[in-house]
Write a structure and sequence with these properties.
single chain; mainly beta; Immunoglobulin-like; 4-stranded antiparallel sheet; 9 strands; elongated
């Protein structure tokens, strides 16, 4: 009898451990991209796929950017296992005024409940051209 009780307790423990090991896993379509040449003042966009390859819901608590010239929105912010969401990125190349020229680098930070990667980062570059260079 005692061995049966111990075996049952161990079995329940293993089952609970297996159930609690479910975790979300964020996967980005890409972590870096290049907008290329952009005329100062142009607003350009790109959409990226964010996937959850884990076995628990991925909950995105924040999407922030490194600069006010960049906006990013993720829809939906809760991604079920095996599902994906769309990250919409908008970059205003003229946000810093008409004199900004040359290469710029900007980042988007995605904060989530992924225990292995609580903050995923997408980085992009663009080469800002003056209106007379286009």
């Amino acid at each position: 009898m005692r061995k049966t009780v111990i075996a049952c307790i161990l079995s329940v423990g293993f089952i609970l451990t297996a159930c609690s090991s479910k975790q979300p896993q964020i996967i980005l379509e890409t972590e870096q991209f290049d907008f290329g040449d952009v005329v100062n003042g142009d607003v350009i966009t790109r959409d990226l796929i964010v996937q959850n390859e884990g076995d628990a819901p991925l909950i995105v608590s924040a999407v922030t950017t490194s600069c006010g010239c960049t906006q990013a929105v993720l829809e939906p912010t809760t991604i079920l296992p095996g599902e994906s969401a769309l990250l919409h990125i908008e970059f205003d190349s003229g946000a810093h005024g008409p004199d900004l020229n040359g290469n710029v680098t900007r980042m988007i930070f995605i904060t989530s409940n992924d225990p292995q990667q609580s903050e995923a980062i997408v980085e992009f570059v663009a080469n800002i051209l003056g209106k007379d260079e286009s």
